Amino acid sequence: xxxxxxxxxxxxxxxxxxxxxxxxxxxxxxxxxxxxxxxxxxxxxxxxxxxxxxxxxxxxxxxxxxxxxxxxxxxxxxxxxxxxxxxxxxxxxxxxxxxxxxxxxxxxxxxxxxxxxxxxxxxxxxxxxxxxxxxxxxxxxxxxxxxxxxxxxxxxxxxxxxxxxxxxxxxxxxxxxxxxxxxxxxxxxxxxxxxxxxxxxxxxxxxxxxxxxxxxxxxxxxxxxxxxxxxxxxxxxxxxxxxxxxxxxxxxxxxxxxxxxxxxxxxxxxxxxxxxxxxxxxxxxxxxxxxxxxxxxxxxxxxxxxxxxxxxxxxxxxxxxxxxxxxxxxxxxxxxxxxxxxxxxxxxxxxxxxxxxxxxxxxxxxxxxxxxxxxxxxxxxxxxxxxxxxxxxxxxxxxxxxxxxxxxxxxxxxxxxxxxxxxxxxxxxxxxxxxxxxxxxxxxxxxxxxxxxxxxxxxxxxxxxxxxxxxxxxxxxxxxxxxxxxxxxxxxxxxxxxxxxxxxxxxxxxxxxxxxxxxxxxxxxxxxxxxxxxxxxxxxxxxxxxxxxxxxxxxxxxxxxxxxxxxxxxxxxxxxxxxxxxxxxxxxxxxxxxxxxxxxxxxxxxxxxxxxxxxxxxxxxxxxxxxxxxxxxxxxxxxxxxxxxxxxxxxxxxxxxxxxxxxxxxxxxxxxxxxxxxxxxxxxxxxxxxxxxxxxxxxxxxxxxxxxxxxxxxxxxxxxxxxxxxxxxxxxxxxxxxxxxxxxxxxxxxxxxxxxxxxxxxxxxxxxxxxxxxxxxxxxxxxxxxxxxxxxxxxxxxxxx
Length: 801
Hints:
The chain is 21% helix and 23% strand. It is an alpha+beta fold. Strands 32, 33, 34, 35, 37, 38 and 41 form a 7-stranded antiparallel beta sheet that branches. Strands 22-23-24-29-26-27 form a 6-stranded antiparallel beta sheet. It starts with 29 loop residues before the first strand and ends in a 6-residue tail after the last helix. Mean pLDDT is 95; it is low at 1-10.
């Protein structure tokens, strides 16, 4: 086995085996021949290897970290035609020869009868891709581990390896290494099997889930802090401050050294006192990341050049450029110790690794992006820190490296229209935390509605990072937009910070194996309708989101999106409209919101409007409840010092929130676990998305006042976290769904169409006939199609169910 460099790599603190690595599979799960090996890794997961030299690979690859997995029942039959291996889910037939279409077959068993032969396309449902740089609309996606016929394949033959001590290794020639996922339509199990082998996703620090401000612009320290202060004054919350490449020397780089794309030295004309600047950001509740373009190495004008040169054995007096070479242990050691750690000591919290220079390095088959992601993550995780990184996707296994940067998005409706599908489909390859250039980065035209819809999608995407190019006419500050769009953007950004308690609970859930954003076919894999709504997705355990990604109708002044809803009732958390599930419906929304639907029995914990600091656990909550069915939500909170808690969540604080519609009881249980990480006393507002109760409401037996209106009413109380609370609603079961007359009236009032036709439609809406008859009668009214469709949506909503 060939290693790229000698054992001096072990001197690097950052070079160490992944803590979850167990790359050698159980011997009793290996079936071997002279040149082949099949390893049963799961009930539907086979590793299939061919080796010209008869040797096999047991080191960690970029994808495969763990192969020593729990025991699986399987049978082996050998005969003169090869071997047949059978589990409860799947059967593999292999002739023991070099892989061929006729010699290697994997098929699903039971309800799902899909099959795959070597050499045939797997026809999986896609995974993700390295970057959306300059992509205006759709692009091809790499492989995923779920497929409509039930069999998906990851070819791991070309990835590079890590040696047992954590340094870089390469593969021997003449070997093939396939992972075949045969899980039928059990897409969740396929992703779980993927994680079992490739490792757990990173649990992000809580502050990463708030809004990020990012702009390619030569800010000064004063102008950047003034901008953050204006955001505060405008009640626009942010938790991450991104400083693009102008933090370092760019225009001031002496021309003999080339351009200033790569840099590690503060531009002192803009940032005269970097530690004071970074401290001022921290005092404002912001974590900071700096943009990093490392490809040009380290040149003599850099502040760190003398120390860097000595560390790699170069005489600083020669002023010889130090090339970027992450395959050289001496360079990698100095790269972190001399370039990054001093800046982190000044207050930099993490790095935006903006690698755009391809996949080749000084070692055959070793992608420098992989090395940057892997070693930056290990370095960022030193001393028990969360391992926060921000970089591009390098291939299967990249989910281990925190937040992904999807690239320089083109400003267009086509770009926005692809991003929800792109984000959801990434769950097929276990990739949780895409960060997009919200609003678009480059080119395009100004379109205020597009910018607003993009921000609204960003709030309901994994990472909400506003960004724009180095162009004075591409802006994302809400006050740069007309009043309608400014208001909608502001409400969206505030709601993102209100969502952080829910998002952080889903963050723990993602680290345990369920991505925050998932396609609808993960929820309902056997419903063909779930495959026909690519831009609709599950957003955690409680919500379905359907972003609006096309311009609004000029007549109705509303954007539209077609959705398919699973069985049950679904309540829009913004409009309060309730929909029957198990059907397709077209939803129409004005500029103020996009469809965000809470499942029946759903419980959505939100920070109170007065408590929007994403860096700490809130002292005040609003909890939305869709009360037509029973529900439970376990709120997970952890320590604010960002220490790693592990994939199982670790010693966090857990608070059970439970609704029982039969007894009318809502329980806020005493906190379990790390009670010291949450406020001792909290204010709780429970908002029921239902008709007003028919009886008294009590908290721990004491009557309390109810405020609100039919469709949305609330009670507010206070209690100790270690004691919990019981809210009881007396009388009949709560009913959801209210008349939509006011909503229809507002829609018709604003519609840009004839007043006589509006009046005719209004008379029909207010009639006493069943909704189906009124909908049929509307067909005869000379309304624009978009207006009629929006009225029909509201007439078809649940009323007094």
